[in-house]
Design goal:
Monomer. The protein is of the alpha+beta class and 184 residues long. The protein contains five helices and eleven strands; from the N terminus they run ββαβααβαβββββββα. Strands 1, 2, 3, 4, 6, 7, 8, 9 and 10 form a nine-stranded antiparallel sheet that branches. Strands 5-11 form a two-stranded antiparallel sheet.
């Protein structure tokens, strides 16, 4: 289930707030400029599903997002426990970074945790199937998919070449609970 943990950025020991209420999550994140919505991921994903199958299944929703946000392209990321690059990809995005464009994800299977470093807080959002999250450009954040990732998400991009991570050099991500602690 989708969950929001709100920490003071100086105290990773205990979340000041934890909620699984989808409306409350959307409201709290919305006050910080983060879009969080519930969509319906009803296309059955199997081992034989291709990226084109998934993009075609959600074509209307993707087109709507593209028109609203000026996104030019969409693709599908599919992470499995057997993905050959899972360790390298996890380690890369466990470091705080920003992007020069929005980071938009619609989870159609599985889950992952976005950590948003906003003002003096860290907002850890466990995103699950049906969740749409849009992290605005230049927002400090990191992402954890765990050591046995299992999710599929539609990603939208403004830049056809995809986004580039600009690492902040801050070690804050090392202080906060990882995916395994939050996705119980």
């Amino acid at each position: 289930m989708s969950t929001l943990y709100v920490y003071n950025d100086k105290d990773a020991g205990q979340a000041d707030l934890t909620t699984e209420d989808q409306n409350e999550i959307a409201r709290i994140l919305g006050r910080k400029g983060i879009q969080f919505e519930q969509w319906e991921a009803n296309f059955p994903i199997t081992a034989d599903s291709t990226a084109d199958d998934i993009l075609n299944a959600y074509a209307d929703s993707i087109e709507k997002l593209q028109q609203e946000g000026g996104y030019q392209t969409a693709d599908v990321i599919n992470m499995t426990p057997n993905h050959p690059d899972k360790i390298a990809l996890r380690n890369k995005f466990l470091n705080e970074h920003t992007h020069s464009e929005d980071e938009v994800r619609f989870f159609v299977k599985g889950d992952g945790v976005f950590y948003l470093h906003l003002d003096d807080g860290v907002y850890a959002v466990r995103c699950c199937k049906n969740d749409l999250i849009s992290v605005p450009a230049n927002t400090r954040h990191w992402f954890d998919m765990g050591d046995s990732p299992n999710f599929t998400a539609v990603r939208l991009f403004t830049n056809p070449d995809g986004w580039v991570a600009n690492f902040t050099g801050e070690k804050i991500a090392d202080e906060f609970p990882r995916y395994e602690a939050l996705a119980k």
